[in-house]
Amino acid sequence: MRATDFFRGGRSRPFIMGVLNVTPDSFSDGGLWNSPDRALAHACDMVDAGADMIDIGAESTRPGADKISAEEELRRLMPILSEVIPSLDVPVSVDTYKASVAEAAVEAGVSIINDVWGLSDPEMAPTAARLDVPLVIMSSFGSSKTFKTDFIQGNILRYAGDFILEKIDLAHGAGVKDHNIITDPGIGFGTTHEQSMEILRNSSYFSFGGKYPVLVGPSRKRFLSAGFPGMDRDDATAEACAVAGSSGADILRVHDVACTVRRLS
């Protein structure tokens, strides 16, 4: 599998990445799916609803979240992977910024590394290169402690684009190939409501001339109440996904797969 397999191309809609949080404290569904049987049932439900891949995360990135050790992350993650991966016929990605967790997950059968902290672990790029799997590189600003108080200043497209290009250069230096890179402009990770909407409307910018598939993750984030007032968070997510899809996103990361698929159908 290569990242370039996820270019939307002639598909009628972008690829859908279903979110499976196996944490006690995620912002929208913490604790709901953190046992192997419930995680598997939910993953299967998302695939039945139209998910093209499942993204599993064991450490919350909600505003204010505390970081956990790699050992704790693996303790939460590995039993879920052991149950879910053999039972699905779609790719599974791991949402982690730790190289040691990514390596263990890939060894367990994960196909994609989704790094929401933009290669902050200096071992992530060489690990991804050695494992030869698709790598999502996301733009971010600050930390989970500052998302609500510190925001990117100036042109958001320029900031996120420059951030990602710098990390792509780092990845190249470690041996990651272009065909294994997916970009993510990082909606909600230090962006204002207005900046998040601007990213949605300019998703194709982050393909950098069509070189890389673009993943956009607006699901259930705070900006939706301002961008789509009066809508519940899953309907608003679906509307945000429609905007991102029409502006060039290849992959949409969502919690409620069925709602988004209905909107895009």
From TrEMBL:
This protein's UniProt keywords: Folate biosynthesis, Magnesium, Metal-binding, Transferase
All copies of domain Pterin-binding, residue ranges: 14-265
Broadest EC class assigned to this enzyme: transferase
GO cellular component term of the entry, any: cytosol
Catalytic reactions of this protein: (7,8-dihydropterin-6-yl)methyl diphosphate + 4-aminobenzoate = 7,8-dihydropteroate + diphosphate
Presence of keyword Magnesium: yes
Lineage top rank: taxon: Archaea
CDD domains, per database record: DHPS
Coiled coil: none
Keyword Membrane: no
Pathway of action: Cofactor biosynthesis; tetrahydrofolate biosynthesis; 7,8-dihydrofolate from 2-amino-4-hydroxy-6-hydroxymethyl-7,8-dihydropteridine diphosphate and 4-aminobenzoate: step 1/2
Required co-factors: Mg(2+)
Short name of any one Pfam family annotated for the protein: Pterin_bind
EC number: 2.5.1.15
GO biological process: folic acid biosynthetic process; tetrahydrofolate biosynthetic process
GO MF annotations in UniProt: dihydropteroate synthase activity; metal ion binding
NCBIfam families to which the protein is assigned, alphabetical: DHPS
Protein name, as recorded: dihydropteroate synthase
Organism: Methanomethylophilus alvi (strain Mx1201)
Taxonomic placement: Archaea, Methanobacteriati, Thermoplasmatota, Thermoplasmata, Methanomassiliicoccales
